[in-house]
Design a protein that fits this description.
Layout lengths: L11 H19 L26 H4 L7 E4 L5 E5 L14 H11 L11 H14 L9 H14 L3 H8 L3 H17 L2 H11 L9 H9 L8 H10 L12 H18 L4 H8 L22 H13 L7 H10 L3 E4 L3 H13 L8 E7 L6 E6 L29 E2 L5 H10 L8 E3 L2 E5 L4 E2 L3 E2 L4 E5 L7 E3 L1 H7 L2 H11 L1 H10 L22 E2 L1 H12 L3 E3 L4 E5 L5 E2 L6 E3 L3 H17 L13 E6 L5 E8 L2 E8 L9 E5 L2 E5 L6 H13 L130
Parallel strand pairs: 1-3
Antiparallel strand pairs: 1-2, 3-15, 4-5, 4-20, 6-13, 7-12, 8-11, 9-10, 14-17, 15-16, 18-19, 19-20, 21-22
Length: about 800
Amino acid sequence: MPNKRSGGGLSGTQQAAKFLGVSVLAGAVLAGIALPVAGGLGLAAKGTVESFDEIPIDFKRPPLSQKNQILDSEGNLIATDYYRDRTVVPLKKINPIMRKAIVAIEDSRFYEHGAIDLKSVMRALNKNAQEGGVAEGGSTLTQQYVKNVFVEQAGDDQEKVAEATQQTIGRKIQELKYAIRIEEELSKEQILENYLNITFFGQQAYGIEAAARRYFSKNAADLELHEAALLAGLVQSPTYYDPVNYPDRAVKRRNIVLNRMAETGAASKEDVAAAKRKDLGLEISKPRSGCITATDKAGFFCDYVRKIILTDPVFGKTEQERKDLWKRGGLTVRTTLSPKAQKAAAEAATGKVYEDDPVAASVVQVEPGTGKILSMAQSRPYGLDQNENQTLLNLAVDNAMGGSTHGFQVGSTFKPIIAAAAMADGISPASTYRSDWKTSFSLGDFKVCGNKPYGSGSWDVQNELESEKGTWDMTGALSKSINTYFVDLGQKVGLCDVVEMAGKMGVRLGSGKPVEQKPATLLGGQNISPLSMAAAYATFADRGTYCSPVAIEKVTDADGKKLSVPKTKCERAMSEHIADSINKMLKGVVEDGTGTRAGLTDRDNAGKTGTTDGRKDAWFVGYTPNLSTAVWVGDDIGDPQEMYDITIGGQFYDKVCGGCLPGPIWKTAMTGALQGEPVESFNDVQVPRAATDDKKDRGRGGDDDKPGDRRPGNPFPDITLPPGVIGGGGNGGPGGGGGASTMGGTTDGTTVGTTVGGVTGGDTGGESVGATSTAGGWDAGGGNGTNGNGGWQTSGQDGGWTPR
């Protein structure tokens, strides 16, 4: 109620306010707003009386926040994200009836006066003084535009918003001064265009284009008279006249606008009468903002792209600059996401692991040679509602990009990295190690950088099956995922070189730190993200070149200007021959090893299973020459649980393994993503093999594990091995360096000597090689024998290990 005295007259304070308000403001206006005064009238606010020349140019046409569009690689919309839902349009794309409606109700003399309509000001001041409150506004459209600019610039800062909207004479004079300058700089049409694009129309819609789409699901160019009147009426109070929540109020307000249009001649009386007979005619389009609206379950990828823009210095030197860029919006972000691959990954991730299962699945795919992320999906839906099993935790990426705190232990999927490091150090794939199913290793024999011992004490390592004891070469050990072999091999290579190779392949901890030099690293005891593993295996697929993952191909701003984007960095991590050899060996994993249930039948493919201690994490990472995919399954909530006697995706598992759940998920994702794609082949090589025990017992039903990965309560007897059987730190180089393996050189790539450590370093190799051969211990030089080559060389041209 207006603040009146019981007797009906104005109080003394109100009468004074009336006199001072009218006199001071009117006088100020007539004097050209040249007031140097301050005091109790609200003119003391800092910056109230700046010179006209200090008005910033962007105030006349400020950069308005608009929505960002995230597109896939084919230009399809994945999602929109905005600080304010706004699409800036030129005046020619706004129906003239909308322009007339807003002018009629907000400033009918807009085209007749300057920045200030003195008649309106005096009328409003007089009426407000009589009513004892704000009963009528006297602001012109230009003044309203000025206030909206202040609000826009205030952003989320509530103090600045309050300052921009405060009803003080000082603030009003400031608005008037800016309005006068803007009227000098811009035409009426430009002011009206800016006003219609900046104004808030309620329901999260900023600007007339967003409002037309929100309330009527059409463009501003297509608005009809009754619709335009409704929107024009919202400006005064978008919440109070909200047609969704208060339709009766909205109808009354709309009709007031229509009457005003008839009075001013903006519309004929006949058209106004017809418009008033219509109902509201709403066709609401709900606000769709953020990655929760992403198509094909690409919410996590969408969020990853957003985080890149907010964190990568290419989009701004400081965090605030990048944040302002995203908030200002108007960006069109063309990403690397393949719609076909994403659909396949989403189906794979949710097909065998349900969103309400006790564990989750993550699938991520990378293109070898480019680093492009083609898909990113997981079984949990993206969102905030935990009751609907939603999460914002992106299981595929590092912690800094929205992933888990540390990543996940990768288990045996780390073994190919050890194999690559070994070959880079000159160790032949035919190198063999013999052990029982359970072996104790001296920690002092593991060397870190600087050739320093890792520590003291011992470490017990076991294979999955008690029957897995004997002699293996590198191919057989990869196929069966023999833990003891790779611990022995890693011990010989040295932790420093293993970690260095991992770094070259882009493998780092989920925390962003480098992989640690620990013996447990050899069995995948480090926490790494699926994206990191997919990119690492893409190194094998691209014949030894690692390319850092990228998700953005192109970004343009609201004006269509191209912005710089992060580029992939491709560097050689290993020789082509080493990568070709890994590919050949990992083909055996999917053909007759632990990954048989994952293998594709229509093209070359390779991969590796992984299951960690207690079956808390299960993996399959594999690839073709043109696609690398990592699949992880495990507990994403709280302390990881062991996956024994568990139902996942409606299927019961007595124990989850890399080959029996992640493997089939991988196959589904790969099959869908590669449908219709060219069939490419790996570069074939002759990888030397040794006559080992494993050849008579290939495969083991698609299972794989690492030490301790057994059901609790099922202990096995300890086995004490004679000293020297496993060996340790010898190099096995020239002159019989005493290495732990039964390595030998080759003469034709098929016959392998068995002299431990090597006798003469291959200097006198002959045609006949056997248990008593002097052909050969392998050495990095691969010294050529008299009639044969005494070892394997990194170049792959000696010792029978030659590309076909």
